[in-house]
Amino acid sequence: MALVSIRNLTKTYQRGPEKVEVLHGVDLDIAERDFVALMGPSGSGKTTLLNLIGGLDSPSGGEIEISGQRIDQMSSGQLSHWRSQHVGFVFQFYNLMPTLSAQKNVELPLLLTKLSGAQRKRNAEIALQLVGLADRGKHRPNELSGGQQQRVAIARAIVSDPTLLICDEPTGDLDRQSAEEILALLQSLNRDHGKTIVMVTHDPKAADHAQRTIHLDKGTLVDSELAVTA
After folding, report:
1. In this structure, what are the phi and psi dihedrals at residue 166, rounded to the nearest 5 degrees?
2. Closest among 84, 215, 199, 79 to 150, alpha carbons compared
3. For position 6, what pLDDT does the model report?
4. CA 123/CA 100 separation, integer angstroms
5. Buried b / exposed e across 159-180, counting CB within 10 Å, b at 16+?
6. Where's the ABC transporter domain (predicted)?
7. What pLDDT, on a 0 to 100 scale, did the predictor assign at position 229?
C-alpha cells in the first residue's frame, strides 16, 4: 500500500484574467520508506506538486491520500494541524531564526505540542546528535557554515518524527562537498531511520542519491526511473 497516493491531480492558478493550469491529471504513488527525487525544467510544476504533497497548498482537482487520509478535502486549519504532525520541511535557504541558537531553532516545531521545556530540549538535542551537530547546539546560525545550517534545518524537520520529509532544493545553496554531506545524511535518514523523503532538485547528482527519480514536464508526469546508488 502506498504511503502517498495521488490521482488525477490538477492545479490551476488565476493570474489576472487568465487561468494557468500548472498540473494536469497527475497520478503518482510513493511507498513508505521511499526516497523520491522530483526533477524537471523551471515551470514544470515540480515545486507545486511538492507543496501539494506537503499540504502547503490545496489542489484544484483530484485526490491526495497520505497514510489513508484525504488531505485534499481538509480545510486550511485542518491542513495546518496535519502538517505539524506528519510533515517535516527542508528548504534551500534553511529558514532559521537568526537570533536563536541551533537548539532553540530545532525546538520551534515542538512549541505546538504539550511537551515540557525539558522534553523539548532533550528532543532537540537528540535531533542535533542525529545530524552530527551535538556540539553546536548553542551556536547561532551566523556562527555556522551553510552545510551546518542545513543540518540544523534537517534536525528541525525531523524533531517531531514526521511521516514525510519534504525537501525543496536542499543542496541548492551549498558547495559540492557540503551538498554531498547533506545528501548522505538524507540517505541515512531514509535507509537507517525509515523516513520517506520527497525532494525537488535541479541537480542530477543530487537525484542520484534518491531511490527513484520522477520527471515532470509542463505539468505532466513524464517518466520514473530507479537510481543506482552505492
Report:
1. -110, 120
2. 199
3. 95
4. 17
5. bbebbbbbbbbbbebbeeebbb
6. 4-230
7. 42
Please give the CATH topology (third level) of the domain spanning 2-95+162-226: Rossmann fold (3.40.50)
Q: Which three cell numbers stand for residue 82?
A: 496535519
Q: What is the pTM of this model?
A: 0.91
Please state, as a whole number, how many other Cβ atoms lie within 10 Å of the Cβ of residue 200: 25
| DSSP for 85-134, written as a single string | HHEEEE-TT----TTS-HHHHHHGGGGGS---HHHHHHHHHHHHHHTT-T
Assess contact for 157 and 88: CB atoms under 8 A: yes
CA-wise closest residue to 165 among 154, 174, 173: 154
Which residue has cell 558547495? 175
- The pLDDT tens digits for 53-95 are 999 999 999 999 999 999 999 999 999 989 988 999 999 888 9
Angle, helices 146-158/117-130, rounded to nearest 10 degrees: 130
Q: What distance in Å separates the CA atoms of residue 147 and residue 168, rounded to the nearest whole number?
A: 15
Name the grid cell of 114: 504539550
Alpha-carbon distances, residue 194 vs 83, 163, 187, 200, 201 (angstroms): 19, 9, 10, 19, 21
